[in-house]
Amino acid sequence: MSRTRTRRFLKLTIGAELRHQLVTSVKVRRGPRNDIIDFGPVVRKAHSIRPIGIGIGDKGYDSEGSHLLLRDELHAMSMIPPRLEKVPVWRTEGLYRKKMKRHFSKRVYHQRSKDETVFSVVKRTMGDEMRSIRTRGLNNEIRVRMIAYNAMRVSSSLLRGFLQSPDCISFPPVETGDSERRRDHVSPCLGSRTFSTAALFCSLSFAICSSRSRNEAAVLTSNLAYQDLYSPRG
To answer: Which of 104, 129, 154 is a domain's end point?
Structure first.
């Protein structure tokens, strides 16, 4: 008898900060495999970059261990819908899973749609086809795409803030040809964010060219992104 050959594929698990829709942690694995196995590493890495207030996951991460990790270890709120909705509360295993059935908030869980937006943007801007052949190349290509997505999000945010800032460039109404007066009123908006953005793109180049771990480059990019978004203007 011929044995059935299991089709292998890559599974991408990400942790995303939903306020600015930035990727904070990445885990790539050969599938098929249970989703819960990558929940712990991804959540801990994301929490090390920015503390988690509310951890939201889909039904694939429904387990008492996931709730214990978020609530007891990281002291955050968990919002993971139960897989078996028709099973009554008294037959549901686990204290936190029972609480989910009693107090599940669809309004809070709806924020998870932003996570799907991240995947949608990556596919629309970079395509959904992979050019690499070997597993190592596929892993690196996925990680670099996540880094490029973060760089794109931060650069577009900074550019939008630069154009909207009243301190960047001010041209009072002057006559045509009056270059001296025009030059006196130009005040370029160069501060700490400009240099942090330069470091962000340096880390992107480092991730593409270096043979070091792309996971470390992704963490570096996320740290620089948060430094840019949460620091005061220079």
So the answer is: 129
Write out the DSSP string of 109-165.
HGGGHHHHHHHHHHHHHH-S-----SHHHHHHHHHHHHHHHHHHHHHHHHHHHHHH-
pLDDT digits (tens, 9 = 90+) for 115-128: 899 999 999 988 88
Angstrom distances, CA of residue 180 to CA of 29, 51, 168, 171, 184: 61, 51, 18, 12, 6
Cα 42 to the center of its chain, rounded Å: 11
My answer on whether 120 and 229 are in the same domain is: no
Q: How many domains does the chain have?
A: 2
Name the pLDDT band for 30 (thresholds 50, 70, 90). Answer: confident
Same domain, 77 and 13: yes
Domain span at residue 85?
Answer: 1-129
**Measured distance CA(79)–CA(166) in Å, rounded:** 41
Count, residues in the chain: 234
Residue 121: closest CA among 156, 80, 161: 156
Residue 126 in contact with residue 148, Cβ under 8 Å?
Answer: yes
Q: Is the pTM of this model over 0.70?
A: no
The string of pLDDT tens digits covering residues 104-160 is: 999 999 999 998 999 999 999 888 888 888 888 888 889 889 988 998 888 877 666
